[in-house]
Amino acid sequence: METTLPNYRRYAIIGTGAIGGFYGARLQRAGLEVHFLLHTDYATVCQSGLVIDSIEGHFTLPQVNAYQDVHQIPPCDVVIVSLKTTQNHLLPQLLPPILQESGVVLILQNGLGMEEIVAKIVGEQRVMGGICFICSHKVGPGHICHLDYGSITMGEYLPRGITARLSQIAADFNQAGIAVQMTEDLLLARWQKLVWNIPFNGLSVVLNATTAELLNHADSRYLVKQLMDEVKVAATSCDRSIAEIFIEQMLTHTEKMKPYKPSMKLDYEAHRPLEIEAIFNQPLHLATGAGIKLPQMMMLYRQLQFLDTQNRLKPTN
Amino acid sequence: METTLPNYRRYAIIGTGAIGGFYGARLQRAGLEVHFLLHTDYATVCQSGLVIDSIEGHFTLPQVNAYQDVHQIPPCDVVIVSLKTTQNHLLPQLLPPILQESGVVLILQNGLGMEEIVAKIVGEQRVMGGICFICSHKVGPGHICHLDYGSITMGEYLPRGITARLSQIAADFNQAGIAVQMTEDLLLARWQKLVWNIPFNGLSVVLNATTAELLNHADSRYLVKQLMDEVKVAATSCDRSIAEIFIEQMLTHTEKMKPYKPSMKLDYEAHRPLEIEAIFNQPLHLATGAGIKLPQMMMLYRQLQFLDTQNRLKPTN
Questions:
Q1: What's B231-283 look like in SS3?
Q2: Averaged in consecutive runs of 10 residues, what is the pLDDT profile of chain B (317 residues)?
Q3: Cα(A60)–Cα(A82) distance, rounded to whole angstroms?
Q4: CATH fold group of domain A10-184
Q5: Less CB within 10 Å around the terminal CB: N or C of chain A?
């Protein structure tokens, strides 16, 4: 299997929102060829392009390659999946028409289990993943607001290791001003991100709170820490080890952040489906399958399942 | 110590709300002498009396013995404590002036630890407790709405047993049309009530839901059952045994109830302090002191502590 991409690399963005819209626009601004798949924002983006309000400098791309139909997109070398994981059931229809024979899919989503889904569609050797450390959200059609951070940790799914194509893609992102950390262990990076996502995404929804509010009250802060400790134990089910110091640093780092609403909280407020499957159910499934008990993660998971159902039943509540 | 009350029995109601207002009014309507301590509703009740909207028949008491100051109340044989437990810090000032030497305090509150507080004030042999099975709430000053049920389980604190005075008080309530179950084991009855209160009070606040909504979703129903199982285990710390069939019956019974907002949910919506200390912290304290691990009760407790703080900080949220 080829793990080197051609010198001229064509990108596709599947899901032009807070993540895909931001990174895609930065890649295009840096001179790369980028094709954007859009759904509800298609008409606006055809007319007005993409607007990025960013702490690193505002910019507009008046003209972008926008599509409603994947069959109109030319074959691409790197197909970035930046949909919500709740849309991943669409991937069997979306990926095959646009992925170049020697191309690769780069999954920029949180949680676990997405690489396995994509591997079944395109083959396990055409899959990469990335974990984005970014505060951004869509404020309107084709209009992304980037508040803070922006780096990506990227790695191969199989085979593990720093391949030529991984370095090529990292170089493209670097050219676009995006810091990339290449990892030989994508799964470890995914579990590490879950140390943050599970407590903060989950509790922000259940307790209607920002990161700062959760850390400033002794009881919720204790729950954050307990949940992080459970994620650490859960990771051992995949033979991944998370150091105690990593957890301490993540708490300290989050304290220094501006008060922040995690993506699941924003989804909840917008009455969108919550990414419970990828962020909670897949990790729980792996860990409980290995006989690990996670009472607090499990309780939070069940609370979110309830709230997600109610939230979609009562859209104007 | 005298455990018989005089033939002519004078009642005081400390806390004339959903519980004390309803039972006190029923006792007075049945011909008993009742004295009501009031706070914010004093002026209205002096002017208009007590209004009871009840499934068992509406009635008004145009004239009641209403007081703002305990020192104006004559010595009483039975002092009913029906304040919120969050007000129990006031009891050292409220009880001594009105409790007859041979009288008894009857605590109609949910949770644990109240008898111990009152015993320290009036002596452990002048304490009784009751658990109310009632759906009622205050709809306005001196205006109580009684939706369903109404029976009370009553017992002595120390010594345990069916005393003469317990039978006398039960007879007074019976005369007022209130069913009373006399118990030789008040503490068991309190733990049994917690099997209901801990899941439904707690989850109704955290998940913004009625009893029916909690039971109709598989995940929240599972949490209800898990929490009930934890309360069953917690009760063993006090050498009290709750049968599995009791839990099953409680679930079935709650399913047959109309959709219901537990008192803690009503308190939360009205931005009143939540009864977390009596209903969660005391049981947790007893059980964890005995080395019992209760991860889900503990998590729910911490979530409520956070929400209670936020709810009082943001009164108009």
A1: HHHHHHHHCCCCCHHHHHHHHHHHHHCCCCCCHHHHHHHCCCCCCHHHHHHHH
A2: 86 97 98 97 97 97 98 98 98 98 97 98 97 95 96 94 96 98 98 98 98 97 98 98 97 92 95 97 98 98 98 72
A3: 20
A4: Rossmann fold (3.40.50)
A5: C
Left if phi > 0, otherwise alpha if psi is -120 to 50, otherwise beta: which for B49?
left
* Percentage of the residues of chain A whose pLDDT score is greater than 90: 96
A20 within 8 A of A82, measured Cβ to Cβ? yes
Neighbours of A298 (CB within 10 A): 21
pLDDT score at A270: 94
Provide the shortest C-alpha distance from residue B107 to chain A (in Å): 30
Strand partners, B53: B145
Residues of chain B with Cβ-Cβ distance to A206 below 8 Å are: 206-207, 303
What's phi and psi for B100, nearest 5 deg? Answer: -55, 145
Asked casually if ipTM beats, i.e. exceeds, 0.90, the reply is yes
**pLDDT exceeds 70 at position A45:** yes
CA–CA distance, A297 with A237 (Å, rounded to integer): 15
Mutate to test the interface with B, among A216, A274, A303 (most CBs of B within 10 A): A303
CA distance A90 to chain B (A): 27
User: Would you say how long chain B is, in residues?
Assistant: 317
Query: At residue A72, does pLDDT exceed 80?
Result: yes
The CATH H-level superfamily of A188-312 is: N-(1-d-carboxylethyl)-l-norvaline Dehydrogenase; domain 2 (1.10.1040.10)
Which CATH number is B188-311's, of 3.30.70.580, 3.40.50.12280, 3.10.180.10, 1.10.1040.10? 1.10.1040.10
pLDDT band for A317, please (50, 70, 90 cuts): very low
- What is the rounded average pLDDT for all residues in chain A? 96
List where CATH 3.40.50.720 sits in chain A. 10-184
Give the residue-averaged pLDDT of A122-138: 96
Q: Taking a C-beta distance cutoff of 8 angstroms, is the pair A77, A10 a contact?
A: yes
Residue A291: strand, helix, or coil: coil
Is A138 known to be catalytic? no
Phi, psi of B33 (to 5 degrees): -85, 120
CB of B217 within 8 Å of a chain A CB? The answer is yes
Taking the CA of residue B32 and the nearest CA in chain A, the distance in Å comes to 47
Query: Which of A213, A302, A304, A313 is the mutation pick for testing B, counting most B CBs within 10 A?
Result: A302
Chain A CB contacts of B222 under 8 Å are 302
